[in-house]
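Researcher: For the annotation table, I need structure tokens for Halobacterial output domain-containing protein. Please keep the output clean. Sequence:
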Amino acid sequence: MNRKSTRTRSGERSVSATVVSAVADYKGVNEFALDRALYNVIDPDALDNLFKQSRGVVRFDYLDCIVAVNQDGVVTVSSEGDCG
């Protein structure tokens, strides 16, 4: 069965923090229990800065998941089979 976790960035929370939260939710673990830090996969500051001034979508692999972030701060985590 295909699973998906979607989170929307809100308030002062950064895009990178929203990514970590969405991946943890997808994996069914606490954010601090993730096997690999986000900064080992993508530069969190660059990710945050990218969506401060530009529009678009960024996709990357993180902990065997496909993470997609759009300009509205929506983070979607899925398996490769779910990625469209």
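Researcher: And a one-line annotation?
Model: The chain has two helices and four strands.
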